[in-house]
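TASK: fixed-backbone design
INPUT:
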């Protein structure tokens, strides 16, 4: 089997803060490309989990969701009686 991996080239202008951070991230021999890819994925995961937390908070305070949870608990309590 052959797989074609297509990667997009990205050009970024950096400032001194980014240069410093990039130097720290590549000091152990990590390539610039690997460091940038890892940073982008870390930023994506951070945003994704923040969105999940927000959705969970909204669900935890949604009256309809809370009523459904109560109904399920009542059903489960009725089953435990047997």
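OUTPUT:
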């Amino acid at each position: 089997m052959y797989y074609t991996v297509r990667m997009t080239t990205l050009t970024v202008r950096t400032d001194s803060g980014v240069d410093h951070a990039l130097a720290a991230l590549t000091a152990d021999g990590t390539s610039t490309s690997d460091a940038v890819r890892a940073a982008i994925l870390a930023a994506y995961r951070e945003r994704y989990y923040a969105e999940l937390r927000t959705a969970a908070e909204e669900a935890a305070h949604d009256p309809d969701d809370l009523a459904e949870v109560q109904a399920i608990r009542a059903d489960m309590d009725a089953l435990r009686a047997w």
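COMMENT: DSSP finds three helices and no strands in the chain.
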